[in-house]
From TrEMBL:
Protein's name according to its UniProt entry: Benzyl alcohol O-benzoyltransferase
Sample GO molecular function, one term: transferase activity
Alphabetical UniProt keywords: Transferase
Pfam family, one: Transferase
Family to which this protein belongs: Belongs to the plant acyltransferase family.
Amino acid sequence: MAQQAPTPLTFTVRRHPTELIVPAKPTPRELKPLSDIDDQAGIRFNITQFHIYPGNPKMGHKNPASVIREALAKALVFYYPFAGRLKEGPGKKLSVDCSGQGVLFIEAEADVTLKEFGVELQPPFPCSEELLYDVPGSNGIVDSPLMLIQVTRLLCGGFIVAIRHNHNMSDVFGYIQFVTALTELARGASTPSTLPVWQRELLCARDPPRVTCAHPEFDELEETDGMIIPFDDMVHRSFFFGPTQISAIRRFVPNHLKKCTTFEVLTACIWRCRTIALQPNPEEDMRLLIIVNARSKFKTPIPVGYYGNVICSPAAISKARDLCNKPLGHALELVKKAKSIVTEEYVRSVADLMATKGRPSSSPGSYIVSDLTRTSLLELDFGWGNAVYAGPDLPVAGFYTRYINHKGEPIIVVPVLLPSYAMKRFAEELDHMLAPTDKDDLNVQKHIGAHSKL
């Protein structure tokens, strides 16, 4: 369900001086290579997560910033590579210099209450640059801090924990493992319940490397290929999907695909509506990259405690004409097929491709989605209880997050970034699909398709 863009909210944040938090005890000084899955060029960036907590009278006058600062120093004893810095070697190979230099930490206060953010918390968050100050010189990949944390206390007793971390070090599941350890230590544990495992050699290229699978997600496109979206007039909005909205979309699912997952049908719907909104050339290849957690695909399981990247991004590709004019089942079949091709061999083929092809980036112009609704982001508890919102702040990708609304219903939040001219069409097209109708499904399908104009 489309949400109206939130009314602009402004507030002032007072930041304390930036600190470097180092491990509470001496840690090994060593150089630890990343895996070739960690080394994918497409994840050479820092990603920010927001964790928003209400106040809790049971915590008395405890300062969450002080609690988290102390726990962080303890957590870095176990996760000491995070206190180091990345170095780049031959072939763009990344390694961590476990130097113990520490991670950046900022304590802050804001003159705003959680209630003022609105009933439905959603990205983009107002004053996000204030809730996570971009410390000058800290946002690089090589020779930069691998983590930046800002804890901002609110007038109501609530607080916001913003964490920017280097994606090459961990995917979201490794990130959650680290923050889980941080929360356990904040609540008084002496050691994390899951001890970290490095073993990045498990996902390094084979000897000799052999690319055995097709990887269109890394296709090098000509300058004339792929849709170029101008970034000078972009709109970032969130769309909420509860049980009612998901049921409405499922009306368009053909019988032989009825067992599809909520993520699959929602992704097919958004990919289709997005394409219609952008009005590309009918013969344009529209690329959807689906970030897949491959941990369950290995015959010999990835060790419990492994916190590196175990993700791939297989591509679903369709002509714009087909996406817009064919029923939803067309997009849905492509989404299901892309997800299904990820196997252990596929992951190893990606690692070999990275090592032999100069670590290519994902195809430009691709739309990227990731399902975080089944993660424990909301349950990360520093002692004040569950978060009321938790998720990434990266509008260029569609990270689906889980949200519990004021009625206690689970809602999927989908952030969308589009040019302003396309955002209006996207919302209208989505509303057409969600609208109740007395017509049979076939007629609704024709009605939806008629809006494509391709």
